[in-house]
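user:
I keep going back and forth on a fold encoding question. Separate attempts, laid side by side, tell us more than any discussion would. Would you put together a sequence-and-structure record for a protein of your own picking? Write it directly below this note and I will take it from there.

assistant:
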Amino acid sequence: MKMALRKRVVVKKVSTIFPSRKKLPGVYSLSNFDLVNATIPTYMQLVYYFNAATNANNVAELMQSLREALTETLEIFPVLGGRLRNTDGGRLEVVLNVGGGIPFYEATAAAKLDEWPDLRDCSIETELNPENVIIGDFNYAPLARFQATVFRCGGVALGLSGCHGVIDGKSATEFMKAWGEIHMREHVSLQPYLDRSVLSAREPPVVTIPIPGDIASLHISGESIDHIPCVPSETEGTCSEIFCFQEHNIDELVREIEQGPYKYGRATAFEALSALVWLCVTKARKLESNCETKYIFPVSVRRGRWQPLLPEGYFGNAVINSSAVSTSGELVRQHISYAARMIHDSVRLVDAEFLRSMVDLLELELREGRLVGEPNIDPFNGRDVIVTTLVNFPTYDLNFGWGRPLHFSFSMPSDSEGLVYILSAPQGGRSRHVAVSVRKEHMTRLLKDELFVHFLSELKTSDDRLLRAKM
């Protein structure tokens, strides 16, 4: 849906929000998990949509209450008010008390929320967060930015842009939940645990399990990974679609995998949806049969894998990448249970000792003066699929006094070919929204893939006509 120019978002005011400084230490150390993400030069962006939050007569009052609550929230999450800097040893750390603060944008949109019957189709979503997602200079860039946009109907969108070197998706959503609780003058239900030394390397560091480079995310100067060349495709750019999988769709997909020739017991919803997306996107790309393709996905360190267990409310990065690998030809020839089995085995690989070895490997690299940063792969190479999942986060469990969010989105950056987000659906339960970004020609093929379409409750074309509905 194309919106008229009158419906663009207009920023009315930008304020700088400061936490209470008298309680803050001067320096905040980062873990090796943070350092893996700290050199990614973009903000991750979240957007929450709320209905009937205000009216034209009390917008200023609403913005003031949000600013005041944000100031109080930063007092218990002080790291977001600091700035990154390099130490003499080459490690990044967060310096507090630098006076930078975080920007809070106040904006209006002439559109009404009901102009999009489905907020998955919101055409101005990229304007509901501050622009310029690229972090040009880590020494000066704020570690978080916030935007509140009031729609003509009184609805509100809250946007968060966060630096991935300091927070992951779990931490970001926990911050938003705390902000809502403070805005409602309620007790913060989960206090953040700020000491990241619980994820420190052993002394001396020791690697007992081999760690693949794309999992450890070692960015090693002068080293490259050779891939089998694939036939380049003609492209008109990328496009994104958000697909809804209802509980009964997922149950049917799980049964298909559990009855397949590569069955391995109970398949999770993540494994089932991941297998479907990886298989069908690979088919849509029409890669050469000997072309290597990876399904790269996050594994949480929080859910019992780190020993001793991470404290509840740990605030920082606590995920790593894992990956399943196949040739394109083998993947598309096999039953979907083949892809699911590979993803399942890759998840099981990441146990407590694996994580300890990975952290120690990163520590050894840092002590030798080698950089730790982005994965030593080309993330948007037209062969791989990279997924982010937020289904275990409190994305809809927050309240600013306006009721439950109508919709939550993890905004995709432009030209993010091969990127997939798996999100909880607004209706709750085990339903999922799956956002897929691929080249336009590949999206056209994906929408015609019989296997992919079979497990969807609905499928819409770009002009919003309903093609299929399974009740």
In short: Confidence is low (pLDDT under 50) at residues 1-7, 218-235, 461-471.
